[in-house]
Amino acid sequence: MDIGPPECLKTALSVTPKLLMGPGPSTSSPRILQAVRQSVLEHTDPDLFKIMDDIKEGLRYAFQTKNVLTLAISGTGHSGMEAVLSNLLEPGENVLIAITGTWGDRAADMARRYGAIVNTVSSKFGTTLKLSEIEDAVARVRPKLFFIVQGDSSTGVLQPVDNLSAICRRYNCLLAVDVVASLGAVPFYMDRWGIDAAYAGSQKVLGAPPGLAPISFSPRARDVIFSRKTPAPVYYWDMKLVGRQWKCFDEDRIYHHTISSTLLYGLREGLSILADEGLEHAIQRHRTCAKRLYNELEKIGFELFVENEDDRLCTVTTVYIPDWVTWDDVALYMRRYKSKNASKLKKKGFRSH
Amino acid sequence: MDIGPPECLKTALSVTPKLLMGPGPSTSSPRILQAVRQSVLEHTDPDLFKIMDDIKEGLRYAFQTKNVLTLAISGTGHSGMEAVLSNLLEPGENVLIAITGTWGDRAADMARRYGAIVNTVSSKFGTTLKLSEIEDAVARVRPKLFFIVQGDSSTGVLQPVDNLSAICRRYNCLLAVDVVASLGAVPFYMDRWGIDAAYAGSQKVLGAPPGLAPISFSPRARDVIFSRKTPAPVYYWDMKLVGRQWKCFDEDRIYHHTISSTLLYGLREGLSILADEGLEHAIQRHRTCAKRLYNELEKIGFELFVENEDDRLCTVTTVYIPDWVTWDDVALYMRRYKSKNASKLKKKGFRSH
């Protein structure tokens, strides 16, 4: 051998459990962790097909949709974003992207790579986009697709998306919504609200490990995918093929890629836990917890970043960091790593966990 | 709610363990399954960075390389294939793809989607490509990239790749090798053999769950990536960004996507097991087991598909299926599902497991 076995791999893995309080991944429950350690199944095993079918049902409940093209992409939330953009856009087509935080910029970057003509409409940082601003932009740009984030984890803003489909229909435009940081914690009615494409991540409210991106396309979006003039640019998330692997169409199942059974186990259990609790209860619970957090943060002197309480995303609470610390300091301290201002932070009421 | 919680999710997950004898995924060992059930860590946690560093070391050992751009893509083997093609090719560029089974066709499909001009050189089904055939094709096509599969799981053929770099250098062409079904089980010396890009899957010889694609790029390939005229078409596997997340360059780590800690735990342990055993021993063990399998299969009357024993891939043994059964029948029977010809199969010496 030219390269010897590395020293660092001579010891077995040891992971110190941490309570995850960031915008995601969330801490997985013991039931989910127990599930992901079950034996690996082949991607062509009928037992795994049953689990995939369960997941499709659970996702239709979470998205509140009857869309047949509903499944989990084998990648993280970003791959859901990229799957939506790459399947619905072709080179030279107009897309309108709402910039309400980091994720709009990310979507714009991706859409440009696929050769789309990117137009944007931006909110004031930390506030929502108003309906009239969106309507004006759609009327001006006449995009094929309008993309917006429901819960932006980079700002903690909750963007209303219940009232956008009328505008999009009027200008014959598809409506795609990122619900990565919000699905399961705030109301989302994909069918009732006329949303054409939506995607999430397994590791946020659903509490499963990262690695899967739940996704759903309306019949209208599916028709657009099936009538593309050019092939979907990325094989890995070509929905015509992935949809067949998930048996979303009336065609035989095909092999597309080696789906990760262990990740599916985790997502299946996350969805089962959500179904047990009920969406209404999960939404209420997130709201209640967030309100308690706002109160406690304000008690110890923090100012919340999103002024208007109705505009706050209950899953991600953003605060101004006092000028005598850096956010890196706070994050390290809360994760029990050494940080420069640990004693000051402790005195002010921060608790590491 | 418009859609109620689905009945099928009212029961908890139950997985019947199966001994996996297909071309992959392989059965994960208890040590690996125990690892993947450890608590989820955030993608920005220094503890996870340490695990990523361990994995980079382990992969350099497995690939036998000193390449700094060595990491695991957050997707299955297919995403490794697509990452190689999308990073190394630009629209309008010539690629030469060796068709020695299904995976060459798959690579050709992907490369076409990225706008490359696809040229192919095909072997007779079930045999290797000869050096002269490859040299003739490279000289004729003058591709930017030559792509070939070392171990084709669709045919069970082992393609020699130790002697290709001289040809590729002569015609100033990059050499990419798919080692999904072979890495860790047959000799592979990335640096010694002058290979510019290689990728594998976590779920084959390494025995971890599917969901990660180990990948490595030579300094020459890295220079090509960094001097692209167009941006990498896919954000999710833009190696300039993924490489920074994995701290492969002398730059600060960035957030690119929410990497799956549980999948990393599994891969880290798979690599640790390989380092413990040693590559030489693992290779010898696969060879010995394969020979025993060949003998037993021939004893019960099977004809092996790859005639020449030196051309056989020791991880995937292919046989002619007798004309009185279908391969589907055999696969179902071996997985203990009902199959039409179960009694005949049993009589002939097949054992379900």
UniProtKB/TrEMBL annotation, chains A, B:
EC number: 2.6.1.44
InterPro entries given in the database record: Aminotrans_V_dom, Aminotrans_V_PyrdxlP_BS, PyrdxlP-dep_Trfase, PyrdxlP-dep_Trfase_major, PyrdxlP-dep_Trfase_small, SP_NH2Trfase/AEP_transaminase
Enzyme class: transferase
Domain named Aminotransferase class V: residues: 42-337
Cofactor(s) recorded in Swiss-Prot or TrEMBL: pyridoxal 5'-phosphate
GO MF, any single term: alanine-glyoxylate transaminase activity
GO BP terms in the entry: glycine biosynthetic process, by transamination of glyoxylate
Keyword check for Transferase: yes
Gene3D superfamilies attached to this UniProt entry: Aspartate Aminotransferase, domain 1 (3.90.1150.10), Type I PLP-dependent aspartate aminotransferase-like (Major domain) (3.40.640.10)
Keywords: Aminotransferase, Pyridoxal phosphate, Transferase
Family: Belongs to the class-V pyridoxal-phosphate-dependent aminotransferase family.
Protein name in UniProt: Alanine--glyoxylate aminotransferase
Organism phylogeny: Eukaryota, Metazoa, Ecdysozoa, Arthropoda, Hexapoda
